[in-house]
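Late entry, written up from scratch paper. The run itself happened at the end of the previous shift, but nothing got recorded in the book at the time, so transcribing now.
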Amino acid sequence: MKRSIVTGGIALLPVVLLSGWAFAQSAQVETLRGADVDEPIPLDQIHKNVEGRMQRNYRQQPPLIPHSIEQYQIDVRTNQCLSCHDWSKAGERNAPTLSMTHYLDREGRELDRVAGTRYFCNQCHVPQADAPPLVENVFQPSTGN
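Output as recorded:
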């Protein structure tokens, strides 16, 4: 009895696998960007960057980046954001200076350089874009009361 169940299960396995494969091949995949999945599409055609500063949505929101960072290098050895925004260069480059919190280590001690925990700018800051929402957003910013 057990042997016939096992034999039947083994015989049924290829049928199940083939039907699953056929179903997967017939499924239509649609993307949110309006193009085929394998079609390369430049980012600028999807969302336009917005120049100038946008208003923040809530207190303590990291500022959005009001310019393109497409060719910026940010890695362990180089951070091109600091070539304009570091406290020692911001004045001459007419760029906003980093917040002093970026120069504090984990214990709250002041440093002469950007803290390692704040070095990778794009883990908090993103370029601002005129992008339609993917899902409905009912967020209301704080009134400050």
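The CA atoms of residues 103 and 114 lie 5 Å apart.
(Scratch paper discarded after transcription.)
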